[in-house]
Specification:
The longest helix has 16 residues, at 2-17. The N and C termini lie far apart (62 Å). The chain has helices at 2-17, 36-42, 142-145, and strands spanning 48-52, 55-60, 98-103, 121-123, 128-129, 133-134, 138-139, 153-155, 161-163, 177-181, 186-188, 206-209, 218-222, 248-249. Strands 5-4-10-11-13-12 form a 6-stranded mixed β-sheet, with no helix packed on it. Strands 1-2-3-14 form a 4-stranded antiparallel β-sheet, covered by helices on one side. A two-stranded antiparallel sheet has the order 6-7. 11% of the residues lie in helices and 20% in strands. It has 3 helices and 14 strands. 37% of the residues are buried. The structure holds zinc ion (2 copies). One zinc ion (ZN) is lined by residues 130, 134, 154, 156, 162, 164. This is YHYH protein.
């Protein structure tokens, strides 16, 4: 009897490992939740979504559809800076040529690569999401934050507009879907579906659970719930990716 159950267990193990193929990066090749239809329906503005086999390609010009002082005085979408805030040395924004490739079925990585300076994802309007780092790969300081607009955004040296934090036109203190990171996992505002702040976030700033867009549950990030340097801005995402990041070109 005991021998039979051991054989059964061994057979079960073979069956399971057969569905868990790993690639060279130590990640499984495919997750269980397909994000394709949500990505196709939620991206807007300049973002164009296309699919190719098991991956999704999102292209955008990175320009926001909303107001910012970085459009420049006289532009229909111009609004002033928050009180005491001002332009950075890059002064204005211009169109870019972004391409982000993400898996249709994002999957956890075993290596959890660190996010780096530059785009770590795209907001739904095609504007890049950055982490908590600035030029020289140093953490954002209070002085740099005084160059943010109401969206927690400013342009880089290529006049490439990007979000570092929550803000007026993406998410403030809510459950909004902000965008998708380069590993294909969605990022939401500071609150969960239930309207409360999640208390079980892992070291990557996410957890698995139901969201408005994925009622059957998916791993998802949340914006940080820490008032960064007491500025009233909340970093969208810092630290490492949960999954394996795809390519991002500009
Ligand atoms: Zn920046
Ligand atoms: Zn959540």
């Amino acid at each position: 009897m005991k021998k039979v159950s051991l054989l059964f267990l061994a057979a079960l193990q073979v069956a399971c490992s057969g569905t868990d193929s790993s690639d060279a990066n130590g990640s499984t090749t495919s997750g269980t939740v397909d994000i394709t239809t949500v990505v196709q329906s939620k991206f807007f503005n300049s973002a164009v979504v296309s699919t190719s086999g098991t991956s999704i390609l999102i292209k955008s010009n990175g320009l926001p559809q909303h107001k910012t002082p970085y459009w420049g005085v006289g532009n229909d979408l111009y609004e002033d800076f928050p009180d005491g805030y001002h332009t950075n040395v890059n002064t204005s924004i211009s169109a870019q040529n972004y391409s982000m490739t993400i898996p249709a079925k994002p999957v956890a990585s075993t290596t959890h690569e660190e996010t780096t300076l530059g785009a770590i994802g795209l907001a739904l309007n095609g504007v890049p999401i950055y982490n908590d780092r600035e030029g020289g790969n140093v953490a954002l300081d209070a002085l740099t934050i005084t160059t943010f607009d109401y969206s927690g955004a400013h342009p880089g040296p290529s006049k490439d507009y990007h979000y570092h934090t929550t803000g007026r036109y993406t998410t403030t203190d809510d459950t909004n879907l902000v965008g998708f990171l380069r590993d294909g996992f969605p990022i939401y505002g500071r609150k969960d579906n239930s309207g409360t702040y999640p208390s079980d976030l892992d070291t990557y700033g996410g957890h698995t659970g139901a969201t408005a867009d994925f009622p059957d549950g998916i791993y998802h990030y949340h914006a940080s719930n820490v008032n960064y340097l007491n500025t009233g801005y909340y970093i969208l995402k810092a630290g490492s990716y949960y999954g394996s990041k795809g390519t991002f070109t500009q």
